[in-house]
Write a structure and sequence with these properties.
The chain contains five helices and 15 strands. With 230 residues, it is α+β, with helices and mostly antiparallel strands. The strands form four sheets. It has a six-stranded mixed beta sheet with strand order 2-1-13-6-7-10, with helices on one face. A five-stranded mixed beta sheet has the order 4-15-14-11-12. It has a two-stranded parallel sheet with strand order 3-9. The protein starts with a helix and ends with a helix. Mean pLDDT is 93; it is low at 1-6.
């Protein structure tokens, strides 16, 4: 067992939702989904505020592509199955700021059609300090901003979600027990590196800062051990 696994309590599962903002789907040339797009992320990918996003050798593919994705994360406070939309909020205990870091070549080409591999490398899920759900009265009225080296690259409201949080909880729990402590990443707005012209992917020395009104902020430097001499 790696030393980091001994020090950190990882969530039982991380569920991600793709293409949950129409503008983000369009910037990648994708159609809006008719149902939530689900993928899994390795729980061991979690790091905290201030910790570096490490770029392991495996991400240095012929097509570079480590990307940021600022997101609202919601955390279950109990086991939940077949939750009605009207009761979805009652199964949540906390919310947090998250960064669904993604290596695009592995996501689109190296994973056999599945996104999990490109989103699950160690350090690819920075997660901010959880805030009790009671402190956030409306999950669909939050402003999300992502800054790369101080420049604003993402700005949208959770009101723009194609599938609001309550719908996500209801859909993901249908016939499926979501365990207490499960983290759900609710999707990212437009402005990711892959959608820019030219694309702007993360590299050694960058810093990604994400803030969500009423929830908090998350800041992580990007570190390539090969360039840092590590």
């Amino acid at each position: 067992m790696a030393p980091s696994a001994l020090r950190r309590a990882y969530p039982p599962a991380i569920l991600g939702v793709g293409k949950n903002y129409a503008a983000h789907a369009r910037e990648l040339g994708l159609e809006d989904p008719t149902e939530p797009v689900l993928f899994f992320k390795n729980p061991a990918a979690v790091i905290g505020d201030g910790e570096p996003i490490l770029l392991p050798p495996v991400v240095h593919t012929p097509e570079p592509g480590v990307d940021y994705e600022g997101e609202l994360a919601v955390i279950l406070g109990c086991d939940a199955r077949d939750v009605p939309e009207a009761e979805a909020r009652s199964v949540l205990s906390h919310v947090a700021v998250a960064n669904d870091v993604s290596q695009r070549w592995w996501q689109w080409h190296g994973g056999g059609g599945q996104w999990c591999r490109g989103k699950s490398f160690d350090g690819f899920c920075p997660l901010g300090e959880p805030v009790p759900i009671e402190q956030v009265p409306d999950l669909q009225a939050l402003e999300l901003r992502t800054r790369l080296n101080g420049a604003l690259v993402q700005h949208d409201s959770t009101a723009s979600m194609l599938f609001p949080v309550a719908r996500l909880i209801a859909e993901l729990s249908r016939g499926t027990t979501l365990l207490r402590g499960t983290v759900i990443l609710t999707g990212t707005p437009s402005g990711v590196g892959a959608g820019r012209t030219p694309p702007r992917f993360l590299r050694h020395g960058d810093r990604v800062e994400i803030s969500i009104s009423g929830v908090g902020s998350l800041s992580n430097p990007v570190l390539d051990p090969l360039l840092a001499g590590g």
